[in-house]
Amino acid sequence: MSGYMPQVALEELYGQIMFSNVMTLADRQQLKTVLLKECLSEDEMAIVDRLLYNVRRGWLQLVE
Question: Distance between CA atoms of 1 and 52, rounded to whole angstroms?
Answer without folding.
Answer: 24
